[in-house]
Structures are given as structure tokens and as C-alpha cells.
């Protein structure tokens, strides 16, 4: 599920490119409102990246979230939808598969270093049909080298496949503050709590408690990046205290909200 308010989102168009004019193609967009794309795929790799705003890419496997200094790597042929928060500045890249042989064939989030960020900025200013055999081509090669070395970041919420767990997910996505336990859901579905716990581990690789915490914390990134107060975000995510939220945030992301969004 996309972030709250997605039903009022502006629907972004998907470029109808028959082929890429160069091995690397850039797309620059300024999106003042929340936006989404229809479910689609490309015959090339996509790097969904924003220098401002929070992006979310959803595939059948899960939700991949990218605040600034992060990007989502989407392999060729993977059906996906892209959601963006208001006031997002996109600097996406499309890459021909011939120049990404080193990449893993699965969707994941990458850390964007200062150097990689500036390379993407500079590339976005170059002509679409840049000179491949000159200085511009060398810059593109450095950009590709930096992409190959970019670390993978665990900013993904795996989505359950079991129909009962999907109902739990849909409910918690709409109301992450609710304190319903797995016992509550087991009574609703007339199965044992142990059964639901086993299904969560099978479908997501996480316990229900860890999975729900990740759902809440990933959902907190957009309002925090938009400047909402930490206390308000903590309460909206279901935390009883700001300190408990900050501790969980630090454990998940390795930084406090203030450090993560300076």
C-alpha cells in the first residue's frame, strides 16, 4: 500500500520511450504534490532517486523507501509503482542492461554518497545525447562505477502473501497507531496465534512485532522529511512516548530523526 492520502495523489505519466538514446538516460521532475505512477515495467534498469522528498517503490515483494541520500534500484522487467511525497525533486536514471552487468537482479535501496549525488546532478544537466567518447562519456563511466560501489540499505518492508496477513497489513497501513495484538487477529481469523506468527516469519522473514515496527518507522519518514514535529509523528505511529520512538528510530536507521533529517 502507498502512503496515506494516495487517493488524492497526482498520477505521473510513464515515459513511452521505445529505446534509450544513450546507455544512461536521465529524467528530471519537480513534483509539488503527492504523485504516483501506474504499475509498469521497463526493458532497462531504473534508479528512482530524489534530491528532495521521499520516494516509495512498491513491487510484489515489498515496499522500498528512499528518503534523500537513498535511491531505489529497480531491475529491468520488474513491475512496480512509484509514490512520491509533496515537493519532491526527482533525478531518476534509466540504464541500459549492457552497462549494469554487475547489478543484482532484485529491487533494493542504495545509499547515495555525496560524490554520487553530485555526479547525478551534473549528469542531469548534460544533453540527452551526450558525447560518449569524450569528457561526458567519462563522467558517465564514473557515475556507473559509483553506482556499482553504492552500499545496499535495509529500507524495505516485505509484503506478506497470505490473504489473512494482507488484511492485517492493510489495516495497519491505514492506522499504524492501533495497538491490536497478534492474539486479536488470531481470534478474528479463527486460527491460533502461533499459526499467524509462523506465517509472518514465512512470508516476511520477520516476527510480527519487528515487522509492525518497521512498517511504522518507514511510514514516519515522509512526515519527518516534511518537517512535522517528532512528537506528533511518534504518536501517529503508535508510540506512547517520543523517547521510545527516537530509540526505535535510532535502532532501525542508525541515527535519530534529527540526525537523519538535519
UniProtKB/TrEMBL annotation:
Protein name as annotated: Helix-turn-helix transcriptional regulator
Location of the HTH araC/xylS-type domain: 166-262
Organism: Pseudomonas kielensis
Bias kind Basic and acidic residues: ranges: 1-10
This protein's UniProt keywords: Activator, DNA-binding, Repressor, Transcription, Transcription regulation
Keyword Transcription: yes
GO biological process: positive regulation of metabolic process
GO molecular function: DNA-binding transcription factor activity; sequence-specific DNA binding
PROSITE patterns: HTH_ARAC_FAMILY_1 (PS00041), HTH_ARAC_FAMILY_2 (PS01124)
InterPro entries reported for this sequence: AraC-bd, Homeodomain-like_sf, HTH_AraC, HTH_AraC-typ_CS, RmlC-like_jellyroll, RmlC_Cupin_sf, Tscrpt_reg_AraC-type_HTH
Region listing for Disordered, in residue ranges: 1-28
Amino acid at each position: 500500500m502507498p502512503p496515506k492520502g494516495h487517493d488524492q495523489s497526482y498520477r505521473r505519466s510513464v515515459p513511452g520511450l521505445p529505446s534509450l538514446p544513450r546507455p544512461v538516460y536521465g529524467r528530471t521532475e519537480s513534483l509539488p504534490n503527492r504523485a504516483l505512477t501506474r504499475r509498469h515495467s521497463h526493458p532497462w534498469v531504473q534508479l528512482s532517486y530524489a534530491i528532495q522528498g521521499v520516494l516509495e517503490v512498491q513491487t510484489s515483494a515489498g515496499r522500498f523507501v528512499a528518503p534523500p541520500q537513498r535511491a531505489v534500484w529497480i531491475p529491468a522487467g520488474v513491475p512496480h509503482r512509484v509514490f512520491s511525497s509533496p515537493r519532491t525533486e526527482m533525478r531518476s536514471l534509466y540504464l541500459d542492461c549492457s552497462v549494469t552487468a554487475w547489478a543484482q537482479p532484485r529491487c533494493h535501496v542504495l545509499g547515495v554518497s555525496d560524490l554520487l549525488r553530485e555526479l547525478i546532478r551534473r549528469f542531469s544537466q548534460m544533453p540527452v545525447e551526450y558525447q560518449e567518447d569524450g569528457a561526458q562519456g567519462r563522467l558517465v563511466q564514473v557515475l556507473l562505477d559509483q553506482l556499482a560501489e553504492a552500499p545496499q540499505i535495509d529500507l524495505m518492508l516485505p509484503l506478506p502473501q497470505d490473504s489473512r496477513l494482507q488484511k492485517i497489513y492493510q489495516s495497519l497501513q491505514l492506522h499504524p497507531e492501533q495497538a491490536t495484538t497478534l492474539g486479536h487477529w488470531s481470534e478474528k481469523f479463527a486460527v491460533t496465534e502461533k499459526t499467524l506468527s509462523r506465517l509472518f516469519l514465512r512470508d516476511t522473514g520477520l516476527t510480527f512485532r519487528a515487522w509492525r515496527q518497521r512498517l511504522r518507522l518507514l511510514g514516519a519518514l515522509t512526515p519527518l522529511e516534511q518537517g512535522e514535529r517528532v512528537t506528533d509523528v511518534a504518536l501517529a505511529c503508535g508510540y506512547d512516548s517520543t523517547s521510545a520512538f527516537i530509540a526505535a528510530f535510532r535502532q532501525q536507521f542508525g541515527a535519530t530523526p534529527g540526525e537523519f533529517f538535519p
